[in-house]
Amino acid sequence: QLQLVESGGGLVQPGGSLRLSCAASGFTLDYYAIGWFRQAPGKEREGISCITSSGGSTNYADSVKGRFTISRDNAKNTVYLQMNSLKPEDTTIYYCAARRRRGLCDLGEGDWYDYWGQGTQVTVSS
Predict the structure, then answer these.
(1) Contact 111, 99 (CB under 8 A)
(2) The Cα angle at residue 105 between residues 65 and 10, in degrees rounded to 5
(3) What tens digit of pLDDT does each residue of 6-27 get?
(4) Within 10 A of 23 (CB to CB), how many other CB atoms are there?
(5) What pLDDT was estimated at residue 93?
(6) Would you say 78 and 10 are in contact if contact means Cβ atoms under 8 Å apart?
């Protein structure tokens, strides 16, 4: 069974950092593009970062550019999202998503991706 599991969320003060992980089970991530999304209650899902299967190309939403960094370790079958300089408005649930595709990733509404994790809560508050 193909599964994505996010972890690393939690409570952090404004200006702090967290590193989210997206671990795959039941398949290897080598051929998969990965996206990170977030969705607050009552709001549309927002694509915030993505990385191609090789890790050679990344993309970021303007809202996180310069603060968040996406990376992957295919040997560990895991993709990471390093989040620095966190703001209260970053508070929400974060999801990772995967699609078997080389050379591309997508920061649209998420329909491009085939597999989704269950999400991890990030709360930025003093």
Answers:
(1) no
(2) 50
(3) 999 999 999 999 999 999 999 8
(4) 17
(5) 97
(6) no
How far apart (Å, rounded) are the C-alpha atoms in residues 49 and 72?
Answer: 12
**Residues 122, 83 contacting (CB under 8 angstroms):** yes
Question: What values do phi and psi take at 29, rounded to 5?
Answer: -80, 0
* Cβ neighbours of 19 (radius 10 Å): 14
Residue 68 CB partners (closer than 8 Å, separation 6+): 48, 49, 60, 81, 82, 83, 84
Terminal Cα-to-Cα distance of the chain (whole angstroms): 40
Using the Cα atoms of residue 35, residue 122, residue 75 and residue 26 in order, give the sign of their dihedral. Answer: negative
Residue 83 half-sphere exposure toward CB, CA atoms < 13 A: 30
Reduced to 3 states (helix: H, G, I; strand: E, B; else coil), residue 86 is coil
In 1-126, at which residue ranges do the beta strands (DSSP E only) sit? Answer: 3-7, 10-12, 18-25, 32-39, 46-51, 58-60, 68-73, 78-83, 92-100, 115-116, 120-124
